[in-house]
Amino acid sequence: MTKRHFYRGVGFLAVVGALGIGSAWLSRKAVVEAAGTQAPRFEVDPMWPKPLPNHWVMGNVIGVSVDAQDHIWIIHRQGSLEAMELYGVANPPKGATKRRNGVVESECCAPAPPVLEFDEAGNLLKSWGGSDGDGYVWPDSNHGIFVDFKGNVWIGGNGRGTRPPAARPAAPATTADESAPPPSRGPATVHDSMVMKFTQDGKFLTQIGHSGAKLDSNDTENLGLPAKMYVDPKTNELYVADGYGNKRVIVFDADTGKYKRHWGAYGSKPDDANLGPYNPDDPPAKQFRNPVHCAELSNDGLVYICDRPNDRIQVFKPDGTFLKEVIIEKNTRGDGSVWDIAFSKDPQQKYIFLADGANEKIHIIQRDTMEILTNFGDGGRQPGEFYAVHSIATDSKGNIFTTETYRGQRVQKFVYKGLAAVTKKNQGVVWPKTAKSPE
Asked: How far apart, in whole angstroms, are the C-alpha atoms of residue 304 and residue 235?
């Protein structure tokens, strides 16, 4: 072998070695970079919950909460069931209609009680609600449920029936589109102008507000079609997203019902003027639109508000001082994109999970930057798909529970599978890896 051939061979080996080292370095770099953007990963549990007894079916499921025992509470609307879903009962629930009143038309089906409690395995534990009781009237249209740190169960409502409770019709008028504002403002009265507190067995404890009050975003005694509640365990203050008629956040003492404070968008005094339809080309609205759909507090004392039709989350201090906002899916019209939020269960609550019932996704957001990292879900009827995903909650293990309104009529469980590198923005349906999944 000549020296020239020898040096060529050495050079070739050196290039190959360099390429090998470079390739390995690039691979490691790609892994490191991918690991630098991580997000919680989930898989749908298609077998959760277990079938309901007694031929029961659920209507619009418009609230979910998880208590200290990791029991899952939902609330649904019996009055949203269709005539063929009520063949198994002689008389329809309030708000619903049957083809033949007074007649049981077949073996199936019957409306489940509005409040249902499940354990982690999906077993039904308790069921109650739906009727007027001693000292209270049940909402015309249930909306929102929250189990506080003392174990009390809070519910709201967005029923617009205008007659006083004693004279209201058996089937009060409701709107097909639950995001639509009331037909008139100011002097209009509504049935569901209160939130109510019960024990976990359904015993009535108290309520804030009185049924049949006028819509007024600066009324400190009554509510206006409240959407969702949260009780701060540090202060025992009740925060109400108020709501479908009013345009504000309002705070009360959770025991006495004493008014504390309220505010509108950007921490300003709320205004009941009709803003008209949302237009993504307009500047951000200076007031909330209806509905103001959620109020959630983080562990570090920030208040997150779902301004649903305006496609935004606004963040405040507990005293109503505005801090920041983020727009989600800006071009979403109609029902809007920001329906409900829940926090991850790490101590820092690093992530927000946002239910987007118009685009039919769960967005995973990094809370400190409010950046959307990824999303999962798609429109449809199968497990892991959504039809108007409405409410969202997390348990102590990090699992997600969602509910669906309109004709979705169900609750789903998404099992937390740990952190994983974000490889794509739209994950689609998060089908279990142990089952055959679509490519």
From this structure: 17
Q: Total domain count for the chain?
A: 1
- Distance (Å, whole) CA 402 – CA 373: 19
Structure tokens at 154: 């809070």
Question: How many alpha carbons lie under 13 Å from residue 378 in its C-beta half-sphere?
Answer: 10
Domain that holds residue 179: 40-421
Torsion angle, alpha carbons of 273, 274, 280, 285, to 10: 10
Q: Which pTM was predicted?
A: 0.88
CATH assignment at residue 380: 2.120.10.30
Contact between 88 and 55 (Cβ < 8 Å): yes
163 membership: H or E segment, kind and range = none
Q: What is the pLDDT of residues 65-106, one digit of tens each?
A: 999 999 999 999 999 999 999 999 999 998 899 999 999 999
306-328 burial, b for 16+ CB within 10 Å, e for fewer?
bbbbbbbbbbbebebeeeebbbb
Residues 380-391: pLDDT tens digits?
999 999 999 999
Max CA distance (Å), the chain: 110
User: Could you give the strand order of the β-sheet that contains 124-128, starting from the edge strand earlier in sequence?
Assistant: 60-66, 72-77, 115-118, 124-128
| Cβ atoms < 10 Å from Cβ of 144 | 30
Residue ranges, the chain, pLDDT below 50: 6-7, 10, 12-19, 21-34, 162-177, 180-186, 439
Bridge pairing between strands 303-307 and 292-297? antiparallel
Instruction: Specify if 48 maps to a domain.
Output: yes
